[in-house]
Every structure is written in C-alpha cells, then in structure tokens.
Amino acid sequence: MEENQKRPINWLVVLGGVTLLLTLLTCILLFQMHALRQELSTLRGDVSGLGAGLQSAIGNGIGEIRANLEEKNSIFSYTACETGAFDPADKTISLSVEATPKMLSDDTRMEFVVLCDGQSQATLSASRESGAEGLVFYASSQIPLCENVTVMGVIDDGGSKQVQTVSELYGLRSQLLLYIDNGYYAGYTKFDPTDKKLHLDGTFEIYVSSQSDKNKVKEAQLVAQIGGSDAKSYPLDITDDILMGGSLRLPVKEDFDAKVGDEIRILLRVEDTFGFRYEKVLDNYTLGENGEISYQTEAVNAETQVS
Description:
alpha+beta; Immunoglobulin-like; four-stranded antiparallel β-sheet; 4 helices; 25% helix; flat; membrane
C-alpha cells in the first residue's frame, strides 16, 4: 500500500484568508462605532433639547411668578402710559398716563412724577375720569425728548402717600433720531512735509440710518478739517435706500495745504427733518515732521454729537 503523501500548506492562501477576516471584522467594528456615535449624537441632542426646554420652562415659570408677585404687590389695579407725536418746534413729545388705585375713596388724589433719563422733569396733577377701565386718574403733558422715561404714581388718600412705578419707556430718542455709524476710508493717504501737501486718493463709505419713516436727511456734507478750520466740504445725497440699511460711497482725490503738527479731521455733518444737527468724526490724525501720520481713535470712537 502506498503511503499517503501530505499536501503542502499554501501559506499565501491562509494569510489572505486571515487578512480578509480581519478586514471584515474591522468593517463590522467601524460600522458599530459609527452607529454608536450616531446614537450618542442623537442622545446628546435629546439631552440638550431637554435641557433647553427645561431652562425655558423654568424661565417662563419664574417670569410668570415675578409678574404675579408684581401684580399682587402693585398698589394699582390698572395702569397705561403712551407717547404721542413729536413737536419739532420745541423738541418735545406728548405723554399720557392713567392709573386706577386698588384702594379708592372719595378723598383719593393722584399725581404723576415724570423722570427723563433719571432726572426729575415734571409733576403732573391727575384728574378723575371715566374710561373703558372704569374710574381712572389721567394726566398728559409735553416732555423733552429723552432716551428713557420713568413715570411714578403718587397716591394721596388724605392721610398718607404711596409711591410706585406706573411705567418705564425705553429708547424714545433712539427711535426718532438718525443713527450715524463709523465711516470707512479705503485708499491712499500721504503727507509730504517738504511741499506741505496732504494727498488723499480713495473712497469714503458712509452709513446713516433711520428707525422712523418720518425722519429723513434734509442736508448732509462730508467736511475735511485741517488745523481746526474747514478746508473743503462735499455735499452728500443720502437717499431713503441708504437710510434703510445701504451705504453712500464718496470718491475723494485732493491735495490739501497742510503743515507739520496739523490735526486732520474728516467730519460728517447732517441735518434731519426735525431740525436736529449731527456731527460725527469719521477720521482723525496728526501730521509728523517726517511725513508720518499718527491716527487718533478717541474722537472716532466717540458718540455722534447731536444738537
């Protein structure tokens, strides 16, 4: 009988099979890891959403509790306050206020104290009137246009006085006046101390906006000021499109007479429909003896001057 011969092992086939198996296992592990990451991401989103919802619910609950406490602690059962038309002639705005005390008798009297930007402005005697809310104490007056108004109600029942805030109004001046943002200059600026010339060749980009459709730009100009004196002015046409969020680009190419030590200011001057005048510093620098230009940021970052 012939002896069985053993077939040699093909190690390349074995190695290929092991490699294929390892690759398959790796793919399975990667797929499982990807699925796990997706589950974790979904869980994280659910937790985040739950946290945001819980925080919102807590915030709403606190706000409701605060409102209920304020209503409970209020000495008034009804209050109302509103502003009306602006009078350009004397720069005032109409204010009307009414309130009904919770405790009311024939001897009850009321007055309203008006604070403009934290300063006492007027004390208004209130009259008894019948309105949609029943008996109310009412007063109205013209007050100077200011940013924030606080109205305090003072109840006098003949024996004692009680004082509490009736209303707080914010942003009255900002809603009516124009807003001038910092302008931008892109171009060439060079000072030659030898021939005493300041060379400008670039474009100014100007931003003016209005929150009130009743207030427009009546007149505007860009002014180059050298050494405290106006050297040249450029009339500007600021349209409604610009006031609604656009910008105005003004090309400037000039050679100004200037000397070492001069302060240069580029100003935007505007007059609006209501007669308010605005002045905003768009650029500010001084001229050095070697031709250097030293920029000053304090005036540029300052608020627009309104008169």
